[in-house]
């Protein structure tokens, strides 16, 4: 499957969640067996090449790709959750979103000091959520200096924002605009 064929599996939904937004919907890619397998394989190759020792996925679509990559590589999966979902004491971080604020939580016992954890999510837009996940993992004493995404929206600057925080960023495809 070519890069263009993989990219064609991502559905664009205009005016969601607000007028003027072109929402990049990965559920069509996930629903295509071969396309999903190719995307997971490519992300797993990138994670292996950087020496990942664990994979952190950001709720919710990052769970889909991150868990699949972790399973493919035989690595631990670290869920980065929305508030109130983990049954143990957590590290939490509030952060700014494009349309408000959010909070992420992680179980600090899910990572080890100095462990190389790669962050995976479906899409990087402004980078706020991914940066919060990186900060949480670092607070938990992991090394979180790589992030992998299925999609980058470069016009929104999120990948550059992560790079400015010392995070190497890779994506399988990009879409202009927002």
Automatic annotation (TrEMBL):
Residues 53-142 form the Phosphoribosyltransferase domain. Its main location: cytoplasm. One of its GO terms (cellular component) is cytoplasm. Its EC number is 2.4.2.7. It catalyses: AMP + diphosphate = 5-phospho-alpha-D-ribose 1-diphosphate + adenine. Keywords: Cytoplasm, Glycosyltransferase, Purine salvage, Transferase. GO terms for molecular function: adenine binding; adenine phosphoribosyltransferase activity; AMP binding. GO terms for biological process: adenine salvage; AMP salvage; purine ribonucleoside salvage. Pathway: Purine metabolism; AMP biosynthesis via salvage pathway; AMP from adenine: step 1/1. PANTHER family: ADENINE PHOSPHORIBOSYLTRANSFERASE (PTHR32315). Belongs to the purine/pyrimidine phosphoribosyltransferase family. Catalyzes a salvage reaction resulting in the formation of AMP, that is energically less costly than de novo synthesis. This is Adenine phosphoribosyltransferase. The gene is apt.
């Amino acid at each position: 499957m070519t890069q263009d064929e993989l990219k064609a599996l991502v559905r664009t939904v205009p005016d969601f969640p607000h007028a003027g937004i072109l929402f990049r919907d990965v559920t069509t890619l996930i629903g295509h067996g071969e396309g999903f397998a190719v995307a997971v394989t490519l992300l797993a190759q990138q994670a292996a090449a950087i020496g990942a020792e664990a994979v952190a996925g950001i709720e919710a679509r990052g769970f889909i790709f991150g868990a699949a990559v972790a399973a493919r590589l035989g690595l631990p999966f670290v869920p980065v959750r929305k508030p109130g979902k983990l049954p143990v004491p957590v590290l939490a971080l509030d952060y700014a979103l494009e349309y408000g604020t959010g909070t992420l939580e992680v179980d600090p016992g899910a990572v080890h000091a100095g462990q190389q954890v790669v962050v995976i999510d479906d899409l990087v837009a402004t980078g706020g959520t991914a940066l919060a996940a990186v900060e949480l993992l670092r607070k938990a004493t992991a090394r979180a200096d790589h992030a992998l995404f299925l999609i980058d929206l470069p016009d929104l600057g999120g990948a550059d924002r992560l790079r400015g925080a010392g995070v190497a960023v890779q994506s399988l495809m990009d879409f202009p605009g927002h």
